[in-house]
Amino acid sequence: NQDELVFEWVDGVIGNHYPEPSRSLVNVEKILNRYLEVNLYRGEHLSDKTKVFPTEGGTAAMVYLFNELKVSHILEAGDTIAINTPIFTPYLQIPELNEFKLQEFNVSSDESDDWQLVDHKFEELKDPNVKAFFVVNPTNPTSRAFSDHALDKL
């Protein structure tokens, strides 16, 4: 409904109300999900069951994510996480902060493999001590999207 969409946007710009739900405006989420379904979900129909949480940037998203994983007790101090590198430097610093105290190891990609995760790197992720694997796709700073093969392996 175009009228609902315009009202939602105008109301959001004016700032008379807190957004409901707090993570994304209803109609904006529908638009974002349709876009993501075409460009990210790889043919899977996920738009009806995916909740979008827009943030003011990638670093903020990582901070929110780490905070939520800590508060939800999914990650605890001392847990081991894997991070695909190279990656934007602040993403490497967040897990080391005193409030998280996570152990991390890098699952590195290199230029000789066109910055792709190669098969033997996936073996490193089978370690049962690894509680989470953090990746950015497309990668930053190399600006390479993971291949279909790498995405299927993930």
From TrEMBL:
Keywords: Aminotransferase, Transferase
Source organism (scientific name): Colwellia ponticola
Domain Aminotransferase class I/classII large: 44-154
Entry GO MF terms: pyridoxal phosphate binding; transaminase activity
Identification of the protein by name: Aminotransferase class I/II-fold pyridoxal phosphate-dependent enzyme
SUPFAM superfamilies, per the entry: PLP-dependent transferases
Tagged with keyword NADP: no
